[in-house]
Amino acid sequence: MCGGRGTRLDTKVEKPLFRIGGVPMVGRVVGALEDSAVERIIAATSPNAPETQSCLDVPCIETPGEGYVADLNAALNDDRLSQPVLTVAADLPLLDGEIVDRVLDEHNGGSLTVLVPASLKRALGVSDDTTFDNGGREVAPTGVNVVSDGPDDAWLTRDRRVAVNVNTLADARVAEQWL
Length: 179
Fold this sequence. Notes:
This protein is an alpha/beta fold. It has helices at residues 25-34, 50-55, 68-76, 97-106, 118-124, 160-163, 169-178; strands at residues 19-20, 23-24, 43-45, 60-62, 85-88, 111-117, 132-134, 137-147, 152-156.
């Protein structure tokens, strides 16, 4: 998923192309997926990130750029995809093949949402704009999910590789520290 506007990042560069450790975030995510057991990589882009699409060396699905959920739904309706589908946000520069494979191992057939404790995001010093209660614990979505028919499940991890989403320049500084 690499078609968002990235307005909170406050930079002139498209968010997926924002460099962490000298490498565009979307390049880091694609590299992590290439180093995992994922069989095929397709990027979901939008009119909000035209330069991102031209920089990618993977097939792209053009989404309307109307927000994450609308773009995800548009991507999932593309004939090139069949469920289950691993979805990954382009703003996870610490992602690597090992954690992607752990997510795949946790998947039990239905949909899977990967969560981290909100307290972990705060301890790391990254933004936690979206949190909710899950079994009496405040959690935050990571931007990594498996979408499929069947029961919904969640995996709670304390792994910083999925906890550090870069939404602000302060988040970017934290990500740089952990590279």
